[in-house]
Specification:
alpha+beta, Ctag/Cox11 (Pfam 04442), 2 domains, flat
Length: 167
Amino acid sequence: MTNLKKRFTKIAVYFLAFILIALLLVKPFNSFCSLTSKCNPIILSYYLPSKKGNQDFEVNFKAENQLSTLEFKVLTPKATIKTGQNITIIFTAKNLSNHQIKIRPEYFIEPKNADNYITRYQCLCFKEHMIPANQEIQMPFRIKIDPKIEQDQHFSKNNIINMGFKI
């Protein structure tokens, strides 16, 4: 029985060491992602349980495009989001030209004070996106609405938020 206990303890120590090393590597990995734009950072708080709210918000997502050589759209233009809930919305950009283009979408939100309660875990605006000629890319937008918004008087009667990106 003591042999089994030693084996279990050894496995537990290795497992905890692995978790600790992985957590220590998150920050360098995220820095690498920011510098190279070749990967998406790991945001641990996105995956951890969080306090859920009671209020639903109608969120309209928009993709505004000024370029004739690009097709820019959002796959889910409207969503009902409960406060405290994580959600991922996919935007797509298709290069209609015969050469590579670089974009960096600009974030906008209405009403402006709603941004005080939005946590953007992954945003199109965090980095530039290279789109090869005649190719399409998908860009995830991950957010959460903080339950503290429920205490803001402005949002007690207005539960509509418009947000999106301009190119």
